[in-house]
Design goal:
Elements (H helix, E strand, L loop, with lengths): L10 H20 L5 H17 L14 E4 L5 H11 L5 H5 L29 H20 L11 E6 H5 L1 H12 L5 E7 L16 H7 L3 E5 L5 H13 L5 E6 L22 H11 L11 H7 L3 H21 L1 H12 L20 E2 H15 L3 E5 L3 H4 L18 E3 L4 H14 L3 E7 L7 H9 L5 E5 L17 H6 L5 E3 L4 H13 L5 E4 L4 E2 L18 E4 L9 E5 L3 H14 L4 E5 L3 H5 L3 H7 L5 E5 L16 E3 L10 H7 L4 H9 L2
Bound molecules: thiamine diphosphate (TPP).
Thiamine diphosphate binds next to α2 and α6.
């Protein structure tokens, strides 16, 4: 670390300008990035990290730390510089390697890569939604675990967002949610710089954001200049003392602050300032160090002046946990388990077994039964639906509703806010201690797709309950009938899609989902009834965990003449077709393939044992065929649907679109 004496007159200013200089230098070196917002927001970040956040750079995973989310993720250098200055394990060399291969300082902050980064941000609006989810998780855990004199869960969630975040619809959804549910420990800052990429916000954005948030039930304040630390401090104090409403502090800033030619312009947003402008900006800021990436020793010392106290607070929390454990041993053990992300002993036994007497049931209905059975054993399972709880069957019957008055409730009514639900679920999962699930119709997974993608990218443990999974929903018609959605979900990396074929597979699907810690799981379920599959002499439903398995080996058990592969509601159809084709003398194997992703994780030997080489395959799934290419060779066919559906009883639709036993039998005859 080189030192530069007398770079500015005041120590606070020196600390702030160090962030500005690092942001300029890093973007300049990378020749790409966003210097403007970090230069503008440096005073706020400095104030938060040094005076307000409850955190410990020495222990970034302290469960009761405050969470901080930079929703305008393009301002990533603000975070990297602040974390570096605070003492997180981000070296100056890493800052020099901003945006380079193998660095922990990528273009946008990525959770899991860099210490102190609570969530991956970049797609605008998502971070805001994550912050709401984190605050909801904190409120829930506090309500469940805190006892008189033992506030064991007691932290704030902070976020910064920009014009872009507030223009995105998802911020409206989650702001409305946070206001309604009284998330009083959520404190946000709106970087009101009136500039986006295209130019001034005058071009397109004249909302009165302060009034908008007031209307959502937030406590709103304004600070006229981000450089006025005293006013910021006062606003933060007021926000903290407001405990029943979330807070938004609208802060006026100047993008590219300090740059003589770029400040206040869109040119400051997303490109390097240029060597000459960096030099002139530093001069204007009173920054005299000639060398790039200079970090004055006194600035580091001043940034970290509170670190001992923060480490002490962390220790104090651990001691308070011991006291809590003495007074409430059962709760403490439970909290510890949940924070570790471990499931309770014996939880799997909760899953009911289904038999022929259960009859034909829609897989959404068996999912509701399984969820309720599991919820009784797995209290960290919390969630709900985007206003379709009666259709998605996502209600935990014995649990109260999550409300502003009762954050302990496990049934979350997300409202008609699918996108918000997806972002909130990510925030809940990122917080830890709870496993969120959320339901809607499969067709509306499109509405939350950006959040599903981020759940995949961040490897988050969330469970989607997507019902009404095909043209099989019938009369609601093509607007509600998913066609391309299964394939679309299967293309998102790290997302595990499971479309179980009967009640027994549904039980196994939930088991797999709960155990899957490294990414989201989408359960894809029918509206219509599907037959119970008798497992005598057939593959066990527990084989679902392998993604695909031999359900019915057919007449020639070792080497069939034909393999039928099906998922979900089409498994029953495949079994019927098998019977018919075998009557003609050919040996047919039926493979249930509820999950491509799980199957592709199996060994090549296992895959070949299920889908033998050189045996023709006919695939049946009431969805767009495109995602099956990985399992097809010349001569194989998919019986699916590559056009929109129609409004009619589902049996008629299956007949009209040729997803029938006859069609499978006919396809079998063509080889
Ligand atoms: C969903 C989404 N759409 C578009 C972008 C591309 N983008 C990145 S920053 C930005 C403008 C953001 O403006 P603002 O929030 O005011 O940031 P500032 O200009 O103050 O840095 C856009 C459109 C994005 N990151 N995410």
């Amino acid at each position: 670390m080189s030192s530069a004496p007398n770079v500015t007159s005041s120590l606070d200013e020196l600390c702030i300008n160090t962030v500005r200089a690092l942001a300029m230098d890093a973007v300049q070196k990378a020749e790409s990035g966003h210097p403007g917002a970090p230069m503008a927001l440096a005073p706020l970040a400095y104030l938060l990290y040094t005076r307000h956040l409850k955190h410990n750079p020495g222990d970034p995973d302290w469960p009761d730390r405050d969470r901080f989310v930079l929703s305008n993720g393009h301002a990533s250098m603000l975070l990297y510089a602040s974390l570096h200055m605070s003492g997180y394990d981000i070296s100056l060399d890493e800052i020099r390697s901003f945006r380079q291969w193998g660095s922990i300082t990528p273009g946008h902050p990525e959770h899991g890569l860099t210490p102190g980064i609570e969530t991956t941000t970049g797609p605008l609006g998502q971070g805001f939604a994550n912050a709401v989810g984190m605050a909801a998780a904190e409120a829930h855990l506090a309500a469940v675990f805190n006892k008189e004199g033992h506030p064991i869960i007691d932290h704030h969630t902070w976020f910064i967002c920009g014009d872009g975040d507030l223009m995105e619809g998802v911020s409206h959804e989650v702001a409305s949610f946070a206001g309604h549910f009284g998330l009083g420990k959520l404190i946000g800052f709106y970087d009101d710089n009136r500039i986006t990429i295209d130019g001034s916000t005058d071009l397109t954005f004249s909302d009165d954001s302060a009034r908008r948030f007031e209307a959502y039930g937030w406590h709103v304040q304004r600070v006229e200049d981000v450089n006025d630390l005293d006013s910021l401090d006062a606003a933060i104090a007021a926000a903290r003392s407001e405990t029943t409403r979330p807070s938004l502090i609208v802060v006026r800033t100047v993008i590219g602050y300090g740059s003589p030619n770029r400040a206040g312009t869109a040119k400051a947003h997303g490109e390097a300032l240029g060597a000459e402008e960096v030099k002139r900006s530093k001069e204007q800021l009173g920054w005299t160090a000639a060398e790039a990436f200079t970090v004055p020793g006194e600035a580091v010392a001043h940034w970290r002046r509170g670190n001992e106290a923060l480490a002490f607070a962390n220790d104090a929390w651990r001691r308070s946990l011991i006291a809590y454990a003495k007074a409430y041993p059962i709760e403490a053990k439970e909290l510890g388990r949940r924070l570790q992300g471990e499931l309770p002993g014996g939880w799997q036994q909760a899953v009911p077994t289904f038999n022929a007497e259960s009859g034909s049931v829609a897989t959404r209905a068996s999912s509701g039964v399984v969820l309720n059975a599991l919820a009784a054993k797995v209290p960290e399972l919390i969630g709900g639906s985007a206003d379709l709880s009666g259709s998605n069957l996502t209600i935990i019957k014995d649990s109260p509703i999550f409300s502003a008055k009762n954050h302990a409730g496990r049934n979350i009514h997300f409202g008609v806010r699918e996108h918000g639900m997806g972002g909130i679920m990510n925030g809940i999962a990122l917080h830890g201690g709870v496993i969120p699930y959320g339901g809607t119709f499969l067709v509306f997974s499109d509405y939350m797709r950006p959040s599903i993608r981020l759940a995949g990218l961040m490897h988050q443990r969330v469970i989607y309950v997507f019902t009404h999974d095909s043209i099989g929903l019938g009369e609601d018609g093509p607007t509600h009938q998913p066609v391309e959605h299964l394939g679309a979900l299967r293309t998102i990396p790290n997302v595990t899609v499971i479309r179980p074929g009967d009640a027994s597979e549904v039980g196994e699907a939930w088991k797999t989902a709960l155990q899957h810690k490294t990414g989201p799981v989408a359960l894809v379920l029918t509206r219509q009834k599907v037959p119970f599959i008798d497992r005598a002499h057939r593959g066990a439903a527990s084989e679902l965990a392998r993604g695909g398995y031999v359900l019915d080996a057919g007449a020639k058990r070792a080497q069939p003449d034909l393999v039928l592969i099906a998922t979900g509601s089409e498994v029953g159809l495949a079994l019927e077709a098998q019977k018919r084709i075998e009557e003609g003398g050919r040996a047919v194997r039926v493979v249930s393939m509820p999950s491509h992703e799980l199957f592709l994780k199996q060994t090549a030997e296992y895959q070949a044992s299920v889908l033998p080489d050189g045996v023709r395959r006919i695939i049946v799934e009431a969805a767009h065929p495109m995602s099956w290419h990985r399992f097809m060779r010349t001569g194989d066919v998919v019986i699916g649907i590559d056009h929109f559906g129609a409004s009619a009883p589902y049996q008629r639709l299956y007949t009209e679109y040729g997803i029938t036993v006859d069609a499978v039998v006919a396809a079998a005859q063509t080889s």
